[in-house]
């Protein structure tokens, strides 16, 4: 079992509205180095609030009422995110934990070329990199997520939604953070593009060994890509376990209900095979995903 890279300890978040919404209630879990941890649960159960709470990106009326997130670096150092100042938080966000949120593709600056947006990240975080190193790295990153590096001089509006989302994922990987949090990163996309991006993420995880918290209400998809799955309901994690185990032997009544609500999952429980996605994805290779231009 890999050691923890991130510990979430008793995290609670309220929305201070009338009446108060207890969106995240006393959530604790460990993210292990290199694992894909799926976070499942119906819309409104608190997944996004938890994600934003971990990285301290919540805005009023949201308030963290208890708990903390502790990052464990390889050299044994602990970083308590609650104790970081705004400046340190910013520095650590892309370095230690990066995020891709739903609709992240719309957060690219429309008047700056893709290349310059990458360059900004490197100029800020890797000031010693030479111009040539930065250029090479940009191209390499784009290639990794399946975008032609020739697109570097493009502006965001010249790319499709799927391409822009891939660019955001490449950016989240730019500094090779040990943890990536992805909140419905592909939900807005066409299902074929979605699968292709997921394949890239899992492949890169295998290659680079970062840990991923992957959030979606799409439980079948989570079962395919996750090592472990946490099931959330009403602001709490009701069950957390090995993905295959959770599928074949759900403990909590709510997990059973959730599984039952996806018709595609209610077949023969014994036939679940991890990595089944790979075969299905291979079949998609022949599909033209983006119109060439
Ligand atoms: N800005 C807000 N003000 C008040 N309540 C909110 C706000 N944002 C989210 N909530 C509530 O917090 C709960 C959790 O929401 P959210 O974290 O977005 O869930 P999920 O991501 O699982 O769909 C929901 O009941 C939602 O209505
Ligand atoms: Mg959400």
Topology summary:
Elements: E1 4-15, E2 21-32, E3 36-40, H1 47-54, E4 62-72, E5 78-80, H2 86-95, E6 97-101, H3 114-125, H4 131-144, H5 161-173, E7 179-183, H6 191-208, E8 211-215, H7 219-225, E9 228-233, E10 236-242, H8 243-248, H9 253-260, H10 276-284
Parallel strand pairs: 3-8, 3-9, 6-7, 7-8
Antiparallel strand pairs: 1-2, 1-4, 4-5, 9-10
Helix pairs in contact: 6-10
The chain binds adenosine-5'-diphosphate and magnesium ion.
The site of adenosine-5'-diphosphate has 13 residues, from β2 and α1.
Please characterize this protein's 3D structure:
The protein is of the alpha/beta class. It has a domain of 202 residues: Rossmann fold (3-Layer(aba) Sandwich), CATH 3.40.50.300. 36% of the residues lie in helices and 24% in strands. The chain contains ten helices and ten strands. Strands 6-7-8-3-9-10 form a six-stranded mixed beta sheet, sandwiched between helices. β4 and β5 form a beta hairpin. The protein is globular and about 55 Å long. The C terminus is likely disordered. This is Peptide/nickel transport system ATP-binding protein. Keywords: ATP-binding, Cell inner membrane, Cell membrane, Membrane, Nucleotide-binding, Translocase, Transport. Its main location: membrane. Belongs to the ABC transporter superfamily.
């Amino acid at each position: 079992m890999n050691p923890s890279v991130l510990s979430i300890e008793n995290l609670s978040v309220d929305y201070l509205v009338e009446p108060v919404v207890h969106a995240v209630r006393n959530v604790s879990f460990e993210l292990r180095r290199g694992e894909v941890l799926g976070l499942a649960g119906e819309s409104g159960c608190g997944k996004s609030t938890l994600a934003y709470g971990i990285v301290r990106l919540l805005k009023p009326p949201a308030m963290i009422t208890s708990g903390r997130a502790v990052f464990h670096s390889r050299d044994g150092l602990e970083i308590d995110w609650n104790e970081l100042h705004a400046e340190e938080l910013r520095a650590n966000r892309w370095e230690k934990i990066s995020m891709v949120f739903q609709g992240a593709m719309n957060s690219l600056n429309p008047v700056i070329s893709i290349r310059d947006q990458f360059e900004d990240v490197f100029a800020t975080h890797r000031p010693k990199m030479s111009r040539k190193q930065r250029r090479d790295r940009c191209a390499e990153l784009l290639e990794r997520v399946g975008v032609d590096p020739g697109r570097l001089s493009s502006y965001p509006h010249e790319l499709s939604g799927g391409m822009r989302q891939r660019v955001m994922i490449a950016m989240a990987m730019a500094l090779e953070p040990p943890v990536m949090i992805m909140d419905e990163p592909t939900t807005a996309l066409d299902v074929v593009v979605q699968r292709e991006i997921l394949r890239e993420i899992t492949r890169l995880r295998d290659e680079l060994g970062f840990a991923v918290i992957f959030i979606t209400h799409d439980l079948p998809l989570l079962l395919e890509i996750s090592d472990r799955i946490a099931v959330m309901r009403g602001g709490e994690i009701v069950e957390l376990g090995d993905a295959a185990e959770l599928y074949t032997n759900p403990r909590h009544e709510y997990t059973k209900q959730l599984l039952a609500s996806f018709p595609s999952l209610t077949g023969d429980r014994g036939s679940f095979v991890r990595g089944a996605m790979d075969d299905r994805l291979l079949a998609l290779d022949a599909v033209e995903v983006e119109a060439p231009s």
